[in-house]
Amino acid sequence: MEQKLFSDSEVFQKERPTKLTDKQVDDFYLERAKDLIENGYSKDYVEDIIEDLKELYPFRDNGFEMANELKSYKMKACYEIDTQFCEWLDCLSFEYDQILTKNVIDWVKAHNPQPKFEKGTKLLITEHLCYGKPKGAIVYVTGGRKEEACYWIDENPNKDGGTVIEYELVEKCCVIAE
Q: Where are the domains positioned within the chain?
């Protein structure tokens, strides 16, 4: 059995990761730039493509709009824009988010946060929680994702699913309603 000098909870940051590390960002852009060249969407320098992709962040879900931005005069590289390229751009946001999700899952494994509220718990929102969940509203815990330490909450107690919100935010902004 391998012996560790430090436990994972001592090595991983204390708070939930909310962004990629600098190295992950650099690797993300480098891999995408290489992929663009391999797929024949550009023949320019990797560094120029990386700079252009960085200009697109935060990514929209619409590859067509991002492709139009890449056609603008301010970009450094030239691109072969077609439907497949727009579809490739459509995936940027998802791929970026997948890296962050993995970071969160690793963080949860290291810290093992436990939910304070069980499924079916009626909650009163005491501070604005998120869009559509204002202070004073009643919501219910309708489930959750333990691997990401998130509750599902909704106004309908019988709904299977709902708005996905981190344990710590729900627990900070809500109390059990009587």
A: 17-111, 122-176
